[in-house]
Amino acid sequence: MGERGVLVEGVRAYGLIAGMWLRAGMTYRASFAATLVGNLVMTGLDFVAILLMFSQVDSLGGWSLPEVALLYGLSVTSFGIADLVLGSMDVLGARMRDGSFDTLLVRPAPVLAQVGADRFAPRRLGRIVQGAVVLGWALVSVDVDWSVPKVLLVPVMVVSGAAIFSAVFVAGAAFQIFAQDAAEVQNAFTYGGTTLLQYPPSVFGKDLVRGATFLVPLAFVNWVPVCHLLGRPYPVGLPPWVSFASPLVAVACCVPAGLAWRAALRAYRSTGS
Questions:
Q1: Membrane-spanning residues where (predicted)?
Q2: Which of 46, 123, 171, 245 would be a feasible disulfide site paired with 257, CB 3.0-4.6 Å?
């Protein structure tokens, strides 16, 4: 089976497994609605903290509330999509410890699709909805001289950001296989990364900004393109054209993440139990 056939089979397997968990989750509709609303409220507390900060100050690192809300909405929405699709990757270590990961290896379906769709949780839609609401308000409130390229840049940021976070999820899962768990390391770059991006780069040290730009390029989720939208210079002096490089960065992240996943599967030696 060629690469295209594997991809099609993976998407098909993912859809079947995710659909099974979706039907299971919708069995008790009241419980589903309650968990969805609860997830929305819990994720919204992060933005409440930002509102509380702005009740005491006029700007944060030189950024106004609508500008910070723009960063927040892009980060949370992009991460929410990746978390919905691949959020189960962070429990891979537990699967390896109890031996259930081995059962996935013998099934006639791509392992990545099985792990990603495992325990597919539609309650995670709450994070996406909450982030999209804040993003919509920010786009209306922020002071931007809109043009066609800038308007098109917004959905490009969301899609590219989701792809970048997805690549981090997959790379983190590969690391868990090599390290025999270490889910906390993955969470530092996924959940920690989205929290980092909710605040302006100007409030962080130059070394941290460089690391988030060149080492793990999370900055291309929102920091770099938003600086272009707002007419702000980027802290590490990147050329203007990189503001539109998020799709290229997403591809540059996904390819090595996929290769790392393949290498990790080849290196896996089971639990021995």
A1: 36-57, 69-87, 128-146, 152-175, 208-226, 238-261
A2: 171
pLDDT per residue over 75-89, tens digit each?
999 999 999 999 888
Residue count of the chain: 273
Residues paired with 60 in a beta bridge:
63
**Number of structural domains, the chain?**
1
| Domain assignment of residue 58, yes or no | yes
> Which one, of 74, 42, 53, 48, lies nearest residue 203 by Cα?
53
pLDDT tens-place string over residues 148-200: 999 999 999 999 999 999 999 999 989 888 887 667 778 888 889 999 999 99
Tally Cβ neighbours within 10 Å of residue 228. Answer: 19
Residue with tokens 């982030």: 131
Helix axes 148-179, 65-86, angle to 10 degrees: 50
Tell me, what amino acid is at 260?
Answer: A
Range of the structural domain that residue 190 is part of: 3-267
In a domain, 244, yes or no: yes
